[in-house]
Amino acid sequence: MAESMRRTILIWFAVLIAAAMAIGQGPGDQTTGQPAAPGKSTMKKPNNGKAKGSPRNPAQSPASQPGPLTLTPQTYPIEQVQAGELRFSSQCGFCHGRDAAGGETGPDLTRSELVAQDVRGDKIGPLLRTGRPERGMPAFDLSDADVGTIVAFLHDQKTKFEALGGGRRAVDAADLATGDATAGRSYFNGAGGCSGCHSVTGDLAGIATRYKGLALLQRMLYPTAGRPDPARPKVTVTLASGKNIRGRLASEDEFTIVVIDPAGARKTFAKDAVKFKIDNPMSAHFDQLGKYTDDDMHNVFAYLDTLK
Q: The whole model's pTM is what?
């Protein structure tokens, strides 16, 4: 159990480091709701499999840049802000986070250009009532009072986050778009050995549609971090009598191994009384973590991101 726990900690540490490195190398002006330089398009430019240039100055990372400032500073009664917090949490918190700083699927509204330009609901109100179906945002049937409280909460949150003076906390897909897809394909089919277990027309078909940004990177580095769960490791236990018992690995610690046999029964064995062999399909991923260079990691990610 100690060894398993230690391995899990090391793997997650590697995932977090990978994400942090990716943020520091991310391209600018590509995140939804971020301000663009005058005359510069906010449309994300495709990588087209071309290698990136010299390393980006961390100070230029989109994660380190402040969000757009509120054009018309405005304040609201604390009671209205508190009511808006409750309403926002129940209606919008799942996607945008309870604090409006980004959630499961919605962007960080404290860094939104629309919120920055809004004046007492003239832009936020219409958006709430019409929604953005093409982006998965539904329309809300809210009274004027409810809209007013949400507007008050969003502006209050934006003011607080502006005062912090730091960058955003989320990882956008654009932050990770630093690799060379062509080099990633070569590594996938060559030195990385990935094609020995995976097929871009089979299990990986459309993976970049199912997983985006950090979720795709985590799935690539540590496949147990996502849904559906990968296949459970298989184990063969050989008893002292020579009889073999095969099944799925339920759990393992320093002293025992628990197997679920084909009939669904759980069987526990003392490790010092049997011989066993575990076939874990995730082992190759664990081993690969120690082999990746930073470029390999980002290149393979860039290649997987083309499989849509």
A: 0.44
- H helix or E strand, kind and range, residue 249: strand 244-252
3-class DSSP state of 248: strand
DSSP secondary structure, 77-144, as one string: -HHHHHHHHHHHHHHTHHHH-TTSS--SSS--GGG-HHHHH-STTTTHHHHHHH-BGGGTBPP----H
Which residues make beta-bridge pairs with 249? Answer: 259
Half-sphere exposure in the Cβ direction for 281 (13 Å, CA): 13
CA distances from 152 to 97, 115, 122, 188 (A): 16, 11, 12, 50
For residue 170, what pLDDT is reported? Answer: 61
Q: Determine the distance from the C-alpha atom of residue 11 to the mean position of all C-alpha atoms in its chain, rounded to a whole number.
A: 16
Q: How far apart are CA 142 and CA 70, in angstroms?
A: 24
Convert the pLDDT of each residue in 113-161 to its tens digit: 999 999 999 999 999 999 988 888 899 999 999 999 999 999 999 998 8
**Domains plus CATH for the chain?**
2-30+43-53+172-228+286-304 (no CATH), 66-164 (1.10.760.10), 234-280 (2.30.30.100)
Mean pLDDT of all residues in the chain? 78
Per-residue HEC secondary structure of 267-303 comes to EEEEHHHCEEEEECCCHHHHHHHCCCCHHHHHHHHHH
Distance CA 11, CA 287 (A): 10
Rounded Cα–Cα distance for residues 304 and 184 (Å): 8
**What 3-state class would DSSP assign to 258?**
strand
Tens of pLDDT, residues 253-292: 889 999 998 888 899 999 999 999 888 777 778 778 888 8
pLDDT at site 82: 95
